[in-house]
Amino acid sequence: MRPIDTPTFRPLVTACAEHGISRSVAFELARKGKLETFTLGVRRYVYLDSLRTLPERLAAEAAKAA
């Protein structure tokens, strides 16, 4: 169970950088719908669950294509 004070979203660029994803790739993944994001004002945020499950989802997508 997730503690109450744990955030569920972070700024897209910051969160992706912490996972080794560059700014341009982060926005490309968001544009393609591979990351669940939303905008508040002019900043784009990513749901951390979407970012954490990205490797598994990309692997599953690659397996389907093969």
The number of domains: 1
| Strand composition percent | 15-25%
Summarize the helix and strand pattern as letters.
EHHEEHH
Q: Work out the number of β strands.
A: 3
Question: Which descriptor suits the 3D outline?
Answer: globular
**What is the strand arrangement across the widest sheet?**
1-3-2
Task: Walk me through this protein's architecture.
Helices cover 50% and strands 18% of the residues. The mean pLDDT is 92. The chain has 66 residues and is an alpha+beta fold. The chain has a three-stranded antiparallel beta sheet with strand order 1-3-2. It has helices at 12-18, 23-31, 48-52, 54-65, and strands at 9-11, 37-40, 43-47. It starts with 8 loop residues before the first strand and ends with a helix. It is built from four helices and three strands; from the N terminus they run βααββαα. It has one domain.
Quick overview:
The chain is of the alpha+beta class.
Write the layout of secondary structure elements.
Layout: E1 9-11, H1 12-18, H2 23-31, E2 37-40, E3 43-47, H3 48-52, H4 54-65
Structural key phrases:
66 residues, alpha+beta, 3-stranded antiparallel sheet, 4 helices
